[in-house]
Design goal:
Chain lengths: ~70, ~250
């Protein structure tokens, strides 16, 4: 643990991060899918379904990645 | 005393100004932002003017903050990231003071407006994109391909990476905004309960209000800290393509 970071703060910070990281990926995935549906292909609802699935995958990947950055204690 | 808990977030124009159809009226949030900017500036200038070898109280506080921010940059970006020190220190101090000033009753939490946090997030993410393309050129698009991906997985991995990249500014903006808004809504609801409860039972939610206020001070610090750390991480990702996960441990 680097001396500049209070372990309590660093740990709390990590905990706060993960939830929003998953949520944001889900929003983006669903949003991009919805945009493709409505304005590009007119393929309602399949673009949004696919986008949401990709968003879930990306969200879990993000959470996993930020968990990998955790300092080993 | 029936009030919506979202009432404190409403903004009313104090001095309506319209510039070519653009609404740049002065309202409470704008005034509080000015206060925060001048407070930070005056505090840091006064603290930095003495430059004593044995620092006084104010200089000590400023030195701790500068040291703290430098530590974050060093841990996430390394020495090369020190050129962003002014930007990152400004972001940290501004967000921290906005969060803290919002806790004073009667003032306003600027960071509870998603416009403000979204502008910061877009600034940080846009800067990381510009830096990445300036430093690496077209090779920067390789950030969409994680190292060691087999070719047949590319059609699946590239959209996923694209989504997780696009999610960065959104998570940055939403995290700060949602935390500050939620905290103040809880404070409002608890305080409303203690007023409508009367003396008999009202002391209980009031005690919770006091406790929550203490928690909110902590959250103000943690959210400013997280925003700064993620700014550094995103800028650092633009610096050293791949291989950023390895030398963190």
């Amino acid at each position: 643990m680097p001396p500049s970071q209070d372990p309590l703060y660093a740990g709390l910070g990590q905990a706060v991060r993960i939830g929003t990281e998953m949520l944001a990926a889900l929003i983006v995935g669903g949003g991009v899918g919805w945009l493709c549906d409505t304005y590009l292909f007119g393929s309602t609802p399949w673009g949004m379904v696919g986008g949401l699935v990709l968003g879930v995958v990306a969200g879990i990947r993000n959470a996993y990645r930020s968990a990998q950055r955790w300092p080993k204690t | 005393m029936e009030e919506s808990p979202l009432h404190p977030f409403e903004l009313h124009n104090w001095i309506p100004i319209s510039l070519g159809g653009l609404d740049i009226s002065i309202n409470k949030a704008v005034v509080i932002m000015w206060v925060v900017v001048s407070l930070v500036a005056v505090l840091m200038v006064v603290a930095g003017s003495a430059r004593k070898l044995v620092p006084g109280k104010l200089q000590n506080m400023a030195e701790i903050m500068v040291d703290f921010i430098r530590g974050i940059i060093m841990d996430t970006m390394g020495k090369g990231g020190m050129r962003f020190f002014p930007l990152i220190a400004t972001l940290f101090l501004f967000i921290l003071f906005c969060n803290l000033i919002g806790l004073i009753p009667g003032s306003y939490t600027v960071t509870s407006q998603i416009v403000v946090t979204a502008v910061f997030a877009c600034l940080v993410y846009g800067l990381s994109l510009v830096m990445g393309f300036l430093l690496h050129g077209v090779k920067f698009l390789g950030i969409l391909v994680p190292p060691g991906t087999p070719a047949w997985l590319l059609p699946l991995m590239v959209p996923i990476e694209l989504i997780s990249q696009l999610a960065r500014p959104i998570s940055l903006a939403v995290r700060l905004f949602a935390n500050m808004t939620a905290g103040h809504v809880i404070l409002g609801v608890l305080f409303g309960l203690s007023i409508s409860g009367g003396l008999l039972i009202g002391w209980l939610p009031f005690a919770f209000t006091v406790a929550m206020n203490g928690l909110e001070v902590g959250i103000a610090f943690i959210q400013a800290y997280i925003f700064t750390v993620l700014t550094c991480v995103y800028l650092g990702d633009a610096f050293n393509l791949h291989g950023h996960d390895e030398h963190v441990h």
